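Below is how a single chain appears once it has passed through the pipeline. First comes the sequence as given, then the structure the pipeline wrote out for it. We keep one example in the README because the format questions we get most often are answered faster by looking than by reading.
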Amino acid sequence: METSSMPNEVFVRRPMEEPIAQPEHLGILVQPHSQCRAAIHPQIQSTAPRPTGRVTAANVMRLLEYQHFCCALTGRRLGPDTASLDHILPVRCGGEHVIENTQVLHKDVNRAKTTMTSEEFIELCREVVIHFSTCQFEVSPPASLFFEE
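Resulting structure:
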């Protein structure tokens, strides 16, 4: 079970006078989707072919090799404890359970993505970046320090 280092943190939003400085590679997230031409983490050209057919352990391993053991959305390195299979077009949207409709994501990314399509998830991430760039968050003591429960 994962726990936060400070489980009782309370975040307070305050308007900012200046936007938070962002690393240049995050700039793509605030562009309209139609203007995005390059991936945040471009895939390394793979010599392994993308697997096709049924979702099997062997095909998932081939997919990991094809992705160079990196998350398809973030580029994070993947290991046995962090890899999670994801449907590109979710089954709820009519996606098939075949290897061509899957990608391997970091487990934290897949947990956040839930049943969204990759495009829906990336758009949500853009909204978060835009909102965060216009607000400042400060860590405040938990309310339980001031009020009895």
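Residues 10-36+48-145 form one domain.

See the next section for the split statistics.
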